[in-house]
Amino acid sequence: MFLNVTMEEGIARAELARGKVNAINEAVVDEMEACFRGLAADPAVKAVILTGRGKFFTFGFDIPEFLDYAREDFIRYLTKFTGLYTALFVFPKPLVAALNGHTIAGGCMLSLSCDWRVMVSGKSRIALNEIDFGASLFAGSVEMMRFQAGSANAEKAILSGRMYAPEEAFELGIVNEIVSEADLEMRARAKALEMASKDPAAFRSIKLLSRKDTAETMKRKERDSILEFIEIWYSENTWSRLQEKKIHS
Is 164 inside a domain boundary? Predict the structure, then answer.
């Protein structure tokens, strides 16, 4: 089990817990998909907080593990992962990300799918930094970044690959609130309760209305973007960088 779920007063708290950096692999994605499907269907759940254990929300994909995947296996995984963040993007209930630490690459994508992102102040960083190790992005990740930060800021973030401090991320619109580590749980819970106080049918309808066009664009473009991602991932230049990353991980 990599996702620890607790509930209090209708607010479910889902904590990702896998190793030191909460790295994402296929088992994590399968568990998250099943968990959030259940949370969506459970009438007792009014809102959800997604967070991580320790000093990392998640550092993204478990790259050393995926370097042993054949192309078709990796395509299968990427299809699952992009399907997960698309489902979270249109999750029918309030979804708050409590970013307890570094929120990188695939971790940043998961955070962008949420309705509100509260991040701890200090040394934590957030980024879609795939370009720094020669990898591309997925259509859905780009569309979610545009949705949250606007087109100009999104392009600035994804082409630079910069690891943003919380204050910088707030200025760009990548996070919505910065708090101390001591206040993270309180503020995330307060936001979840605030959003959960709205009529659930109205919330679900309005959220889908605001996100439907983006979600449809994500779904329409995703398969081609995954195949392009794969071609770049297995290219000689990127593969050598990834192998180096594996050696030093």
Answer: yes
